[in-house]
Each structure stands twice: as structure tokens, then as C-alpha cells.
Amino acid sequence: MNDSIRAQFPILHQSVNGKPLIYFDNAATSQKPLAVINAIKDYYEQYNSNIHRGAHHLAQLATEKYENARTAVAQHINASEHEINFVRGTTEAVNLVATSYGRKFIKAGDEIIVSEMEHHSNIVPWQMLCEEKRATLRVIPINDAGEIIFEEYLKLLSEKTKIVSIAYISNAIGSIHPVKEVISEAHKVGAVVFIDGAQALPHKKVDVKDLDCDFLGFSGHKVFAGTGIGILYGKAELLEAMNPYMGGGEMIKSVSFAGTTYNDLPFKFEAGTPHIEGGISLGAAINYINEIGLDKIASYEDELLAYGTEKFLEVEGLRIVGTAKNKASVISFLVNNIHMNDIGILLNEQGIAIRIGHHCCQPLMDRLKIEGTCRASFAFYNTKEEIDATVNALKRIVKRLS
Amino acid sequence: MQKSITEIENEIVEDFNLFDEREDKIDYLIDLGKKLPHINSKYMLDDFLVKGCQSKVWLHAYEKDGKIFFEADSDSVITKGIIALLIKVLSGQSPTDIINNNLEFINRIELQSFLTSKRSNGLNSMIVKMKAYASAFA
Question: Which chain B residues contact residue A354 at CB under 8 A?
Fold first, then answer.
């Protein structure tokens, strides 16, 4: 990757505390290319208007752009347009499925399976559902490298299993789970599978037909689009069978006090005026990454990960948390007994942005017997030079603090 | 003779003003943290933890001749540096002085700018806890 890509991201070209910004917090949120920024700007400058019902030019234009974004997402993940529901993000996607699918189909004694390394967003909605339905949440254990133990997963599966919900890629330590195998095993016992794709979509091609997942959720802001927009993909027959999540405008066919009929997919799950410019920004982001090519992005990020892993380990006393064989471009680490906060603060002094803490994965941290990690997560606009600068900064920090 | 809170605050501000570079100010904070003696291990219990800090902060206070004395520790060196400043200012003062002081030096040395947002909440928690101890002894 080269300067022409970095030139597309205006935010990267600034100084923080007198040093050039190095942005290594991509797993928290990604930066936005001009294509996305301009899409949002154009929307407000040229055709802002409410969609789907307006009988005027601007409304037609906005509707077209918004629906084009849906088409772009559908093509990107190999789904049909009516299976693509705009939501606020991955968290809402999980909650929507837990509520609309779960309330209708989960009964007392049923079992839901998640992994030990899920984000809280992929744990708590299922806990709430289990509590309400007197169902049981089962947890796939992980090994010390941060990989799910597949044999243990197979042992958890039974005719009681109704839902399996797992991340494609761990946000905290980058492990890539064998989701295709997880899905096919779940289907053997008749369970449906939700894939938390939040960390996967920015890094790799996700094909819902190839995976055969039943649901997939992801967030726009992690995939170079604006905040507050995300996608819930669901197989049409499942979405059809579910009750609406929220009532309101858009999601109805007709309303009377005698009874209301709901709109068809995907509008059934899109009550209220949607996040129009968010959806449009997501379409622009998807088009942007497809122009570069996800294969190219993935192989460059693998290169960054391999280089970064080698370089980070040069820092005395540094250990990498999460050493799965199959890993995305995330390096979670700790250094000796230096507190992660001190590392975060001192890197920030050098203009380097990382994340510290439990990364919304407290059960994972409990399993690893740590309170949290420092996490550097790379995107395709990052460079080896930035990794070198960070490693040099870390070496100085270790010297200063020991 | 114990210096007044304001006198100590002025000294801290002067110390920080000696450094032009942010980096040197942080180094000074790290030094203060390293030099602060460890708290007696009998106080390193959950009961003495200050809630709301991302790093662990143990705080203990006792009263002697009408003055309040603080001892504290943390697993983060920078946090310890901040605690060292608070102890410098508040330890050995009367409960009334501790409760009524609004610790202006924090803004004067722009301490917040060295902290992540979570940490400034932690700073606030420490101050609240120290004042609560003072109230208990008042």
C-alpha cells in the first residue's frame, strides 16, 4: 500500500502532541476515506430529504442512493437486497435477533451457545433472553493461544441447542474462528447461527452463502463508513418468520385500531426515518474497499501483522496476548509488570493511538487471568514505518518505567 | 511548621513550570510515582481500593493531632505520580482545610491533559475519597 491510499484519509495527516499521528485503534473504529466523507457532505448539500414516500425530486434521489447502498452491501456479502436490514450497528443486530427471533422461538430448557471470547454485545443480549425464557447459555472454552476448542464445542451441541452466536474475528486478540465449520456443525443439530462480523468485514471477504450463516451483523464505522449505521443480514425465511423489533413508520403496510399489517422485508425491521446518510456512507465505503480489493487489503494486513509481531517482540519483556494460528491484524500485548494505562498514556504522548483495557471482553480477560491488554490494531492505511516508530517508542517507555 | 495547602500548590506549579516540554513534565510525574513509598501491604485490600480508577489505587488515611495523613499506592506509575501530588498537598492538613480546598493546582499544571478521559474520572474519584476521609475525621 502506498501514499495514494493514505492521501484518501485526511485525518491521518495531523500531529498529536507534536508528533505525526499513528492511528492503531482501528478495531475500535476505522478512519474514513474522502469517498465516504464526500458522500455524507453531498447528501446534506445536495439532496437531503426523507426517503421512500416523498413525491419529489430530492426524495427520489435520496431513496435511490439509500437503496443503492443496500444493493452494494447485498452484493458485497452475496445476499439478496431484502435480506439486508439497516440497523445502528452490530450491537443492535444481535439485540434484534435475540429479541425478535429469540422471543418467538426459544423455550424453557433450550440452549444458546457463545464462545468464551465474545464481545459483551454478543453475550449480554443472549443472557437477557435466557433469563426471560429460562433457557441456558453454554460457553465454548478457548485454549491459551486464544482459539476456540472445537472438540469442546462439538460436545456442547445437542438437540437442545437452538442458537449459536460467535464472532468471526475476536476484537480483543484477533483470533479468526473457523466459523464455516462452526456453522455446519450447528446446522446438524438444527440450530441457527449468528455471526458477529464486526471485526471481519474490514479485513476479509465475507460470503454469507458460502458460510451458510443464518444471521450476520456488522457495524459501518468499523468498515470505513460513518457511525450509527450497521447491517443485519438474515436468511429471508427466518426474517419472514420473525416478529418486528420496533413499531413505527416505514415498517407498516396499513394501520388501523382493528389491527396493523406489517411491511415486507427489509422494511419490516426498519421502523422510523432511517439513518439515511449513514446508509449512504456505508454504500460509499463498501464501493471504496471493493475498488482497492479485499484480497489486496487482506494480504497487506497479513504482512503488517507478521512484521508487527516480529518487531513488537523485540521490546524487552513484551508478550503478545492471543497467538492463534489464524489471526487478523491485531496485536494485543502486555509488557512485564508495567500497567497498560502507563503504556497507553506514554504512547499517546508520542502521537500513537492504541486502546487499553478489557476491550468489552471481561470473560476472556478472566480466562486469561489478566485485567486487560494494550491493543494495536492495523488497517490497510497503516505502514511498517508506523510499526517501527511504535516499537521504538515502546522500547523507550520500558526503559523509562523500569 | 506545616505549609498551607496554597503554599504547597504554588510550589508544585513552580516545579512544573521549570519544564517547557510535556515529555519532561510526564517524566517528573513518573519520578514522583517511583519515589512514593509503597503502602503497607495490609492496606492493599479491596476495602481500600478507590472505585472509578482504571488502574488500582489503594488509599488509607489516619488522624494525628487533628491533622489527616494519607498513604496510597497504585499498580500504575503515572497514577502513583498523581497520587504523590495529591498527598503532597493534602496530607498533614486539617480536615476543614482538606474539605474546603478546591485543588486549583490541577488546572494550573494542566494535569488533565496528561490523562485519558477515564483517568480524569479516576482523579476525581481519588479527590472525592480523600475528602470523604477528611469528613469522617472532622
Answer: none
Range of the domain at A314: 3-25+293-401
Host H or E run for residue A241: helix A236-241
- Cell numbers that stand for A143 in this block: 485454549
Is the bond into A10 cis (omega within 30 degrees of 0)?
no
- Pairwise CA distance, residues A148 & A168, whole Å: 11
Annotation marks residue B53 as catalytic: yes
List, as own/partner pairs, every contact residues A38-44 make where C-beta atoms lie below 8 angstroms and the sequence separation is at least 24, other chains included.
A38/A284, A39/A277, A39/A280, A39/A281, A39/A283, A39/A284, A40/A226, A40/A277, A40/A280, A40/A281, A43/A276, A43/A277, A43/A280, A44/A277
Q: Compute φ and ψ for A370, nearest 5 degrees.
A: -135, 165
Residue of A1, A5, A50, A88 lying closest to A288 (CA atoms) = A5
CB count within 10 Å of CB A71 equals 14
Same domain, A14 and A57: no
User: What separation in angstroms does the CA of B17 have from each of B26, B83, B116, B129?
Assistant: 12, 19, 22, 28
Is residue A147, in this structure, part of any structural domain at all? yes
Residue-wise pLDDT tens digits, B65-78: 999 999 999 999 99
Among candidates B22, B23, B78 on the partner chain, residue whose Cβ is nearest the Cβ of A341: B78
A64 and A102 fall within a common domain: yes
Which residues in chain B are contacts of A399 at CB distance < 8 A?
none
Strand partners, A166: A195
Pairing label, strands A230-234, A252-256: unpaired
Between the alpha carbon of residue A371 and those of residues A96, A192, B18, B51, B91, the distances in Å are 30, 33, 36, 15, 31
| Maximum C-alpha span of chain A | 74
- The pLDDT value recorded for residue A252 is 79
Number of domains in chain B: 1
Q: What is the 3-state secondary structure of A112-137? A: EEEECCCCHHHCHHHHHHHHHHCCEE
Domain of residue B59 covers 5-137
Among A18, A342, A356, beta carbon nearest to B77: A342
> CA A335, CA A312: separation in Å to the nearest integer?
10
Task: Using an 8 Å CB-CB cutoff, list chain A residues near B112.
Answer: none
| pLDDT for residue A162 | 98
Same domain membership, residue A141 and residue A58: yes
CB–CB of A374/A344 below 8 Å?
A: yes
Q: Do residues A175 and A192 share a domain?
A: yes
DSSP letter assigned to residue A199 = T
* Stated pTM of the model: 0.92
Sign of the torsion angle spanned by Cα atoms A86, A330, A370, A177 = positive
Q: To the nearest whole angstrom, how far is the Cα of B27 from the nearest Cα of chain A?
A: 8
CA distances from A88 to A133, A214, A232 (A): 26, 19, 9
Q: What span, in angstroms and rounded, lies between the C-alpha atoms of B58 and B79?
A: 11
Instruction: Say which amino acid occupies A252.
Output: I
ipTM computed for the complex: 0.85
8 Å CB contact of A346 and B26:
yes
pLDDT digits (tens, 9 = 90+) for B21-42: 888 889 999 999 999 999 888 8
Domain CATH for B79: 3.90.1010.10
Same structural domain, A152 and A20: no
